[in-house]
Amino acid sequence: MNEWRDFVSGRWNDTIDVRDFIQKNITPYNGDESFLEGPTERTKRLWDRVQGLMKAEAEAGGVLDVATNRVSSVLTYAPGYINKEDELIYGLQTEKPLCRAVNPFAGFRNAEQACIAYGYDIGDDVRREFSYRTTHNTGVFRAYTATMKKARHAGILTGLPDAYARGRLIGDYRRVALYGMDRLIAQKKADCAEIGIRDMSDENIRLLEDIGRQFEFMADLVKMAQQYGCDITRPAQNAREAVQWLYFAYLGGQKEQNGAANSIGRITSFIDIYIQRDLREGTLDEAGAQELIDDLVIKLRLIRHLRTPEYNDLFAGDPVWVTCSEGGMSEDGRPLLTKSSFRMLNTLRNLGPSAEPNITVLWSQALPDGFKRFCARISIETDSIQYENDDVMRPIYGDDYAIACCVSAMKIGKQMQFFGARCNLAKVLLMALNGGCDEQYGEQIGPEGKVFEEGVPLDFEEVKDALCRYMEWMAKLYVNTMNLIHFMHDKYAYERLIMSLHDSEPERLMAFGISGLSVLADSLSAIKYAKVIPIKGENGLIVDFRTEGEFPKYGNDDDRADDIARWIVERFYSELIKTPAYRNAKHTLSVLTITSNVVYGRKTGNTPDGRRAGEPFAPGANPMHGRDSEGALASLNSVAKLCYDCCRDGISNTFSITPDTLGHDTEDQVGNLTSVIDGYFAQSAQHLNVNVLDREKLVAAMNDPNLYPNLTIRVSGYAVNFNKLSKDKQLEVIARTFHERM
Amino acid sequence: MRVHSLESLAALDGKGLRYGVFLAGCGLRCVYCHNPDTWSADAGTDMSPAELLSKIVRYKPYFRTDGGVTFSGGEPLLQADELCKLAELLKTEGIGYAVDTSGAVGLTDSVKRLLCGAQSVICDLKFPDAESFGRYTCGDFALVEGFLAFLSENDIPTWLRTVIVPGINDTEEWMERYAKTAKRLIPNAERYELLGFHTMGFFKYERLGIENPLASVRSLDKERLTELQSYINTLLK
């Protein structure tokens, strides 16, 4: 086949196997960044225009325009362009850049309120259509039990994907470029035939219907590409087509689905194979190669979804998590690193710092030094990169996995995830002390138990027993709530296009999460090593604590506290796996809060560690702000002790340091940051967000947003434009520990 | 040994990533000191060399070849005997150390041994001659001269440092005096780093109830610091 000319053939020719294609054809690059090119005039013109639109969007209060009269889908909108003559890669979500689509499949009320929040009315046609339709949200609330509703209301379970789409999926968008849609459709037909001869169990019927729904959208994607003048029924013939085909597939998914964090996967080394061939054939030069990646990134920076203010409260800064995984090692010891990995990082220079795409470096001790140093340098310049430990993930997921959202690893096209928000464990402790009552509303939520006595110091073993009982109850409720939610999501808001770019029978993961880890660890440490005396309120419930004496705190590399944190995570995971998950999914757990640590804190009363009611939690697995008194590396060492084996959905840690603390000059800073990441990951830690900046800069930006319009900061598994955060979130970010030297 | 505090990331006190061990006790009483909380030899906690070692080894993954521990303070060399024991233990673990000192200490056997085994020595040259040294500190400049000469003779990698205080030593003329002393005593120093005086330590004086002799002095302007740094660099070329 002409499209595959000059490629080394292998198993990938006969079966859908992108990994095999990459393994056979990749050109690993071990050098440094000196070959890179700046932006072309064309790129600059296009990017200028987009920046103008983004400025207008910010001035309009965050939303530039909403296409209120149509329901978003793959073929709803005519082709849209930024400025066609200047674009190398085509495709927008709607007909105009930054105009947001209305997507009510997960919840009509949600879509309606999102429109209202920005001064729009949902169109009559849309309203009429959805008056005859059941959304995911309606389905879930039909079935929710009274206890599930109570747990949700009290804020023990928060952020559940019951009114918005679940997301966290990565289609293998590369398949469209490598094989073309005809071949992919043929494969799905063959899968149907194979499943069709089995007994028609619930699961097999569901599978057949899933694939039936996938066909419809695969056909739609072909038509969508046709409207842009491209024939994606066949494989891509060159680098520009490879990028275009891949992007069409991703874009189609974004038109169909507005789920949080539908990430793009691991694409640059795949694209690089096409770029290498074009370079060999003399049809592309380095400036042209960079231009392609720059143009793709411009498109990815334009992805938007329409969200409600409540949603923004949980996931602040309008993120979409176009997470793009770079680097990593091959199972045979070669770096899966190409010049295009450098080109992707170089977009942060050519186009400036940005939260999207969420560039995630899969870090291995064995990666070449040139790449490590380049990453560190870009981190110092832009605060836009996160790092995840390939050496702990590769043994589990192989060498063709990618990160969805912030820290969730999955095999591309072979695993999918049922996203499950998180459970507030600090609140579970308060509930355990109050015999199953919520400390804020006084409502009985959990099973009735003993209310601990006022004025009597808490006994650690007794508290631990009670906590275990309530964790057990909570875990069961949590799994069952998730089962119900994902049953309904599959039924009413199934991701047809994205799932069509998965194997027909993917492995399913159900991703649970915890928040309040450091608050709970320090609270238990206080009960164990100091004296904690409960104080009751008028309703007879414990509302506060008097803590006497010193206690070790999580974040200082002190095993006494860190072992408690480890225990919490392991214990909760062992409870979760007791309840079977929907569609035989494998339970996973994350310690990740996005920015919901602020909301969770707001909903949680006084805690024994001295945190006051309503104060934010630390984000993710971070130690509580200001309590990590032995400095940055001690704090990292504590987090590194949490066990990835029971937290396979990720352990998020955000690290902020001032440039002057990191080293005398840029070269020292680059070297030292590389050592920090190497040292942290050598201890089997999983994730590190890196910010190298001064707190004063953030304060200045908060007071005058015009000062740093593109100020990007890593918060919790993703980056945000600092100016897009609400004031309380800005204050929380500023209050976080900045490691600095006096 | 008496440890004032620990800092797991002290990237500025020597090469690479460093674990900072701040030892308690210093008698120098520099007029601009921003760590008066480290003066008392009773400040902080008692730790044995073995205890400290068990903490330090936790940071081995970060050190690579050039990083390690930095002994600072206070004046770390006041506890040179105990530090020698720790240095032996560090050697068995393959961890290097640097010493951050005023240099105003006698060259005892322990001090010499410690200096000769160090990856580098950071010597804070407080003032450039006996007259100014006597005016602004309680130390003996002759000790500093002997100390720097020892570092020079034994070719121990050395960084010099000086804090620049507005109204005291923030002039070109002072830079000339510092450069002259540095050239005379330790022409083989690797770098000479100027640090700007800052007011972030003022709260410690208040908390300790010690009178702050520079309470009315402001932080040194960053640009001025850069000017003086490039000036002294040219003088030392």
Structure in words:
The complex is a heterodimer of chains A (742) and B (237). Chain A is of the alpha/beta class. In chain A, 45% of the residues lie in helices and 12% in strands. In chain A, the strands form six sheets. In chain A, strands 3, 9, 10, 11, 14 and 15 form a six-stranded mixed beta sheet that branches. Chain A has a five-stranded mixed beta sheet with strand order 4-5-6-17-16. In chain A, strand 7 and strand 8 form a beta hairpin. The longest helix of chain A is centred in the middle third of the chain and has 33 residues, at 460-492. Chain B has 237 residues and is an alpha/beta fold. Chain B is 38% helix and 18% strand. The longest helix of chain B is centred in the C-terminal third of the chain and has 15 residues, at 222-236.
**Rounded average pLDDT of chain B:** 96
Largest sheet features of chain A: 6 strands, mixed
Largest interface: A-B, 27 and 24 residues
| Strand portion of chain B | 15-25%
Poorly predicted sequence stretches spanning 5 or more consecutive residues of chain B: none
Give me the CATH fold name of chain B.
Answer: TIM Barrel
Structure described in brief:
By secondary structure, chain A is an alpha/beta fold. In chain B, strand 5, helix 4 (109-116) and strand 6 form a beta-alpha-beta unit. The termini of chain B are far apart.
Keywords, separated by commas or semicolons:
heterodimer, A: 742 residues, alpha/beta, six-stranded mixed β-sheet, five-stranded mixed β-sheet, 19 strands, 45% helix, globular, B: 237 residues, TIM Barrel, eight-stranded mixed β-sheet, 9 helices, 38% helix, 18% strand
